[in-house]
Amino acid sequence: MTDDVRSPLHDEHVALGAALTSFAGWQMPLRYTSDIAEHTAVRTAAGLFDLSHMGELEVTGPQAAAALDGALVGNLSALAPGRARYTMIVAEDGGVIDDLVVYRLADERFVVVANASNVAVVRDALVDRIARFDATLDDASLRTALVAVQGPRAEAIVTSLTDEADQREAVSALKYYTATDATVAGVEALVARTGYTGEDGFELFVDADQAPALWRALLAAGEPHGLVPAGLSARDSLRLEAGMPLYGNELDRTTTPHDAGLDRVVKLDKVDDEGRPLPFVGRAALEARADAEPTRTLVGLEGLGRRAARHGYPVLASADPGAAVVGTVTSGAPSPTLGHPVAMAYVDPASAEPGTELAVDVRGRAEPVRVVALPFYRRPR
Predict the structure, then answer these.
(1) Is 203 annotated among the ligand-binding residues?
(2) Which range of residues forms the domain containing residue 178?
(3) Which of 42, 233, 257, 315 could form a Cys-Cys staple with 327, CB 3.0–4.6 A?
């Protein structure tokens, strides 16, 4: 027996024969058929993902925007209703507590989406940080299911189930990182054009008890388009090809946004009503880090052999015996789309120039790799 939380879609996964795994305290589908088949379906047609393990924290009130400005590194008060932003919550020393997507649904209503493993710590930190503001936090995580349709056929599938013409047009018109309310297959949903695969797609937030009906409707509507259910394994290889960081791999408490090449999300130029620099948790540390020379750089590694580098493997200056260690792999796997291994790694700045040839110690054997710019894959426009 397991104490893991079950997704509202657990019975659907069992009926589809999914291999289930324990992930961040949840029982979630690892795969349904094969990792490569599910990965390829998302790149060429569409995949259906259960993301109900993610956390949804609603922040509301007259000072909700100001509260989030002080709690997070981003400038959330500048976000228009109906838009979303990728941001982070950091500790006083600038270390990343979690990377987040924040949706502004109305002037005084936001939803902060946190990674499953960090929901409790993000919730507790936000409760503490917004306490002096006229704002409240409601943890809606267990009441909310999140379903994603990702791939080039995603728009056709989701709009085919959106009955109202005006809503169908609104869903189709969504730009990246925007959201709208719509009724999809008879289920009221917040439909967002967001995702973690490098493809076009949508994430649908719905009441947990409505998720099974929506899941089955999406599977049926997607079948003629080549849609398949996809698990955590395909999700990981897709996000790796797209160069997207994973908390616990590329991001953690020892890493600042600047280390990960994500200094763009840190808004040091945000100011208060009187034009003064706006204080937020971690500001002093991030200002200092922005002005400092980096000690490590996140890079892409293209495998030149057949064996894939994996998380934690040492990066070497060369394939020569006794070569110095110049970094550590954070994520790595064979790339089904590109046909060769890929990895992300933190390396010494002197080893970070694209084109630099290095090696990775793969279980005692030096495998050649080449530094390349991220992402490894960009979807056709």
Answers:
(1) yes
(2) 1-292
(3) 315
